[in-house]
Amino acid sequence: MTSRIVTAIAVIAAAAITATACAGYPAPESPPPSATAAIPTPPGATSQTGVEPAPDSDDCDALVSLRPGTLPPPRKMPARSTMADIFARGRLIVGLDIGSNLFSFRDTITGDIKGFDVELARAIARAIFNDPNQIEFRVLTSGERIAALQAGYVDVVVKTMSITCDRRQDVAFSAPYYVATQRILAQRNAGIEDADDLAGKRVCAARGVTSIGRLQSIVPSARITTTSTWADCLVMLQQGQIDAVSTDDAILAGLAEQDPWVEVVGPSLGEENYAVGIAKGHNDLVRFVNGVIEDLRTSGQWQRMYDRWLSILGPGYPPVPRYRD
Q1: Residue 15 has what pLDDT?
Q2: I need a labelling partner for 138 at 20 to 30 A (CA). Which of 90, 94, 195, 258 fits?
Q3: Which segments constitute the Solute-binding protein family 3/N-terminal domain (predicted)?
Q4: CATH top class, domain 64-179+274-324
Q5: Furthest-apart CA pair in the chain: how many Å?
Q6: Which CATH number fits the domain 180-271, given the four candidates 1.10.10.10, 3.40.718.10, 3.40.109.10, 3.40.190.10?
Q7: pLDDT digits (tens, 9 = 90+) for 189-210
Q8: pLDDT tens-digit series, residues 81-105
């Protein structure tokens, strides 16, 4: 028998064995591929267990601020004044955030920080330096604003900061530059139309804001989740981790601009008066900033700022200040 014939017989035998094995031992069925993943929670998001007091700005006449004097010409700040110290440093240091769309946010194309609050901050810098760009922005969360002023980490805070009597014990405020109303942000067709619909629901707010206490006083059964930024609240709403967000309408409108599937609903739950935060003991800077705000109001620049950034909220007008000497 030749080697070629032996090889052929071996191949045939091997094929027969393979066929018998396949017939006797079929391969087990394989389940279809699958994958699961937990929805990530934004860093710093926590469930709030304590109850905060409702805002109390009416109790101490908190909206009254120091009367502005005549603004000095730019670059000619009064000697030994807070403004002279800022001028000598060469820049105004402003605390704000970059997650409050419409008020202060980073433009994803240019990288610039823009918004209504940013224009106000630049107006203060212009009044000191005759240059709105001699400014340094330091990003703060809502809960960091007061400590940053007290530590001298920033000169002013321009960050949708509401005036309250409690806060006035720790920092000084300019006259109000904007009046907001607290409302609710929810998914469209979620069945949430007003505060009554938030009973037992999960509601998000940024840590350190006055809207938490007001909502708890209106809807005690609401389950509050706090986050570091308003953008985190929007992410949690989109992922179904909360049912609603509640804060000032201007902030909510900025969130709604980023997602067509959410909407601002319900009547006003209360007013919030935004002002520039300033460290105590710097009354000259309070009067100076009030002069800048007064100039913006009387020159029509405030209205132009509103029309550029906040016209989505409908007609708006600058608040009328109340001063004391």
Answers
A1: 47
A2: 258
A3: 91-313
A4: alpha beta
A5: 123
A6: 3.40.190.10
A7: 999 999 999 999 999 999 988 8
A8: 999 999 999 999 999 999 888 999 9
